[in-house]
Design goal:
0% strand
Length: 300
């Protein structure tokens, strides 16, 4: 055996295996919506099995016993089957790469839509507060004409005069509609969206971010609706509603959370990868004793 050729073939084989395994690993990560444990364990086990099989094939080729030839055949079949299985997640990640512009576009659209939602709610809150103030001003102005309405809405409110009372009630409504926690929620959501928008599809954390965002998108409007649900006495208002939120993440996740049959390209690449991974086997020399034994058996 030419040791230099064998060493080169071994390095090339391992590099090809790692490259193929990386694509399969990424496909599994997307399939599992960002979970890393299962894909990592599966990938490591797959690499170990293929390396072991290649090693046994090389040893079988150099063996002088008939069992060596059987080991070659069995290990070759195992390698081919492993690569065909890996072609499923391999194809999955290829779909992600092919649709990366669409993925980034949908995340960007959701980011813009979430910003528009925030602006719409801020406008709703400001309008509602101003209407509440105007309604209370009318009550204060007409307290001599409608004392019962004044008693119900302003008489017991905190403040030394009507203006102070109206200001206090207005601030109370603002705290209800726009609590301090809303800024924290918005910053966190914006950070998730910005991270997902700026991440490459080659980043293994992207599917986890998309999953986190998708799980919380339905709460974006619900949170605002809940904050605005309580209608105060004297208000002529309805809870906040919004139907223009652009959420296509559900359809986006369908691209990679279900396996499809391996593409022709994936199968071709699997065959090529298998051939390259078997380079150490191809360049290793068969045992002369084993070959002579086989020839002797043929003559007999």
């Amino acid at each position: 055996m030419n040791k230099t050729h064998f060493n080169f073939a071994t390095v090339f084989s391992i590099m090809t295996l790692l490259a193929y395994a990386f694509f399969a690993f990424m496909g599994l990560v997307y399939w599992r919506n960002g979970e890393l444990t299962y894909p990592l364990l599966f990938t490591i086990e797959g690499i170990a099995i293929v390396l072991l099989c290649v090693y046994l094939m090389c040893m079988g080729k150099e063996s002088r016993w008939h069992t060596g030839r059987a080991a070659e055949i069995i290990c070759g079949i195992i390698i081919f089957v492993m690569l065909l299985i890996a072609a499923l997640p391999f194809t999955n990640f290829m779909k992600v790469v092919e649709n990366q512009s669409d993925i980034k576009q949908k995340i960007g659209q959701l980011f813009d839509s979430a910003t528009e939602l925030d602006n719409a709610y801020d406008k709703y809150a400001d309008t509602r507060i101003k209407k509440y103030e105007s309604a209370l001003q009318l009550v204060a102005t007409g307290k001599a004409i409608h004392p019962s309405e004044y008693k119900e809405l302003l008489a017991d409110a905190a403040g030394s005069n009507d203006d102070d009372k109206i200001d206090g009630l207005s601030k109370s409504l603002r705290r209800q509609l726009l609590p301090d926690s809303i800024d924290t929620i918005r910053r966190q959501r914006t950070q998730w969206l910005e991270n997902a928008r700026d991440m490459s599809v080659w980043n293994m954390m992207l599917p986890a971010n998309i999953n986190k965002i998708a799980a919380g998108v339905d709460n974006y409007v619900d949170n605002y609706t809940e904050l605005s649900r309580t209608i105060r006495a004297g208000e002529n208002a309805t809870p906040f509603t919004y139907t223009a939120l652009n959420n296509d993440l559900g359809s986006l996740q369908q691209i990679y959370t279900s396996f499809s049959k391996p593409s022709i390209l994936s199968i071709i690449l699997s065959v090529i990868a298998a051939a390259i991974m078997l380079l150490p086997y191809f360049v290793s020399q068969r045992s002369l004793a084993g070959a002579a034994s086989n020839n002797k058996n043929d003559y007999e």
